[in-house]
Give the backbone structure.
Amino acid sequence: MKHQHPLSIGSNTLLLLADKAIYWPQQQALLLADAHFGKAAAYRALGQPVPQGTTSHNLQRLNQLLSTYPTQKIIFLGDFLHAPKSHAPATLQALRLWRAQHAAIACVLVRGNHDHSAGDPPADLNIATVDEPYLLGDFALQHLPISHPPITCWRGISIQCSACKAKPANA
C-alpha cells in the first residue's frame, strides 16, 4: 500500500509521501529535500563515531520510491551533500553506482545552505545544479522557505501566482 496524501494546488496534484518526499505526477517528478549524502562520512572525518551505511540506506529508500512512482526527473531541494568531507571516496562511489543505474532519470539540485559549503556534486554524477528558486510549472522550487514576490511559500515549495512574469525552467 502506498503511504501518500494527495494535495491539490491549482491544477496540480502533489502526493505527499510518508518516505519524506513529494511526487508530482503531472511532471513525473520526485522532489526530495535535505538528502545530506555523506553526512556520516563527514562526522567520521571529524573523529565522531557514527554508524556506516547511511548513504547506502538512503539510496535504497530512493530506489524504492523510483520503483513505485514513474519518474523522469528527481529534484533535490537543497543539501545534496552534507559538507566538504562528504566527498569521501566511498560516498562518491555509492552515488556513482546509483547514478549509473538511473542514468535515464534527469536530476536537478536546487542549491541549499549546505551545498554552498559542501560544493556541487562531481560533474560525472550528471546532476544539474541551479540556484533557487527553480521555476517549474506553477511552482518556484527552493530549499529555504523564503518568499520571492509575488510567490507564496509553503514548506519549501513556493507557489507561483499568475501575476509572476518569471520564466519557468524547461521541463
About this structure: The chain has one domain: 4-133. Helices lie at 39-45, 54-68, 89-101, 113-118. The chain has a mean pLDDT of 83.
